[in-house]
Structure formats: C-alpha cells, structure tokens
Amino acid sequence: MTRTVYVNGEFLPEQEAKISVFDRGFLFADGVYEVTSVLDGRLVDNPAHLKRLHRSLNELEMAAPATDDEIVGIQQALVEKNHLREGMIYLQVTRGAAERDFNYPDDAEPSLVMFIQEKNILLDPRVETGISIITTDDIRWRRRDIKTVGLLAASMAKMVAKKAGADDAWMVEEGFITEGSSNNAYIIQGDGTLVTRHLGNEILSGITRQAVLKLAAETDINIEERPFTVAEAEQAREAFITSATTLVMPVVAINGRQIADGKPGALTRRLREIYIQNALQASAAA
Ligand code: PMP
C-alpha cells in the first residue's frame, strides 16, 4: 500500500516525496527527530515529544519548521489519510539545503518530513516471551541527550546483537550501562527497587521513561536513578526497556544468561499494563 507522507508543506504519495541532495540532514546528519506512538488512532505522550523536539532544536541552534499546532495538525492528518490505528509517526527536522560547508548556513530553511509506520504495539508477541540483550561498548558521541538522526552507532550496536543471536543491545561506558540502542534500560533488584540511569548528556531523556517513572512512583515502587553495572543487570530480579514503540518491554536474558527464571517479570508486566491504561485514557481525553 502506498502511504501518504508529508514533506515541507505537501502531502504526497511516498514515491513522489523528495528532499534535496544538499540537505544537511543527508550530508551531515544535521537533523533531529521524534517518534510518537499511535494507539487506537491517537497520539501518545505527544506534547512531551514536541517539548523534547524543541530542546533538541535549541541545542543545535536550529529553527522550528512549524508551530506546534501546525505539527499536530499534520500528524493528525497523516493518521487520517493513512487510516492508521496502531503504529507510529516519525517526524524529522533538518537544517535544510545549503552549499556543503561545516558551518551552519545563515539562510537555510529547515526541512520537515513526517511519515507513519504501522506496527502492532499492544499485541507485540515479544511481550509474552521477553527479549534477549547483549552488552556492547557505547561508541556514540557525548551529546546523547540530543535526539539527532546520527544513528549509525545505534545501528552497529543492533547488528552486534543480531549477529550474537540476541534481540537488542545495551551499551556500556566505563563499566556502567548507559541505555539500550534505541530505548532506556532498567533493572529491578532483589529488594524490588527499580534502577535506571540518571539523566545527563550520556543518555536520551526518554518520554516513555518519564511517564513510567512517574507511574512507578505513584505505585509506591522504590526508584533509584543511578548508573548500574553489567554484573548488577545479570543478577537482577527483572529487567526491561522503554521506548515510544515498545512501551515497556521485558528483558529475560543478558549476555546469554537468563534473568531470574527467564520469564517476563511481574513488576515489569504490571508497569506495562499501567502505562498502557494511562496512555489510552490520556490520549482519549486530549
Ligand atoms: N534512548 C535512545 C538512544 C533512543 O533512541 C530512544 C528512542 N528513540 C529512547 C532512549 C527512548 O525514548 P522514548 O521513550 O522517547 O521513545
């Protein structure tokens, strides 16, 4: 099926959408992005995604290509035009097309691209089995708090995992896990404490992370935001990841070792349920 995508003011069939070869997103990975999940035809946590988009743009001194109202209007139009019930909307802003030069151009018009992808998020079969992860060196740059389209290190980490027969990778720096290749990483200790790395330049401030930590606190779960080691993860009672498209996803093996009994943990399942319930209610009210 041909999707309708959005490129700089136009809704077009995907084959007709075009971006300049001089676009700095293409030449320098000079762009930022957001992924908002769509459940039951509605955008989940979208205001928080737009807020993070502005933060990324500000850090790179990049102009916003449209107002938030305009962006939401385009997102909703894409959901409608593509009859999307469940999946995600991808949004990318690049600095635009300019003569190739490392310095930021003064006069480039930012470019805005958006498209949808269908995906089974709620009934993802991996929720029942859990996923396996391996740990690998975090070779990314030092501004991981900016959600740039420079994702090659994340692709490489996922390929390391794939070649090792695992589903995904957690990245390690100076002995501590930073985050997953495209998600935030959590463990639950034997005493029930939820541990996830604190925010900083070393990780992306996940929107799902923010929502899940709030819900966990409301559920009286003890939370520690601090770095944790690979050994701690291997000995954890439960582990999971969060992101817009996986929500809360159980991790059942790390580096070929089973976590606890090798099944999705009870607290992880509960957090997923609470997150989904909350997301559906909040988006219905919006
Ligand atoms: N960390 C990284 C490196 C990511 O790429 C992502 C998802 N894009 C996340 C964390 C999770 O962020 P969110 O919950 O906003 O999807």
Describe the structure concisely for a colleague.
Strand 11, helix 6 and strand 12 (223-225) form a beta-alpha-beta unit. The longest helix is centred in the last third of the chain and has 20 residues, at 266-285.
What would you say this structure looks like, in words?
The protein has helices spanning 24-28, 46-59, 68-81, 126-129, 152-163, 207-218, 230-234, 266-285, and strands at residues 4-7, 10-13, 31-39, 42-43, 87-94, 111-118, 131-137, 168-173, 176-180, 184-188, 194-196, 223-225, 228-229, 238-243, 247-254, 257-258. The protein has 286 residues and is of the alpha+beta class. It folds into two domains: 4-118, D-amino Acid Aminotransferase, Chain A, domain 1, CATH 3.30.470.10; 126-285, D-amino Acid Aminotransferase, Chain A, domain 2 (Alpha-Beta Barrel). Helix 6 (207-218) links the parallel strand 11 and strand 12. The protein starts with a strand and ends with a helix. The model has no long low-confidence stretch (mean pLDDT 97). The structure holds 4'-deoxy-4'-aminopyridoxal-5'-phosphate. 4'-deoxy-4'-aminopyridoxal-5'-phosphate (PMP) binds at residues 35, 179, 182-184, 204, 206-209, 242-244. 4'-deoxy-4'-aminopyridoxal-5'-phosphate is lined by residues 35, 179, 182-184, 204, 206-209, 242-244.
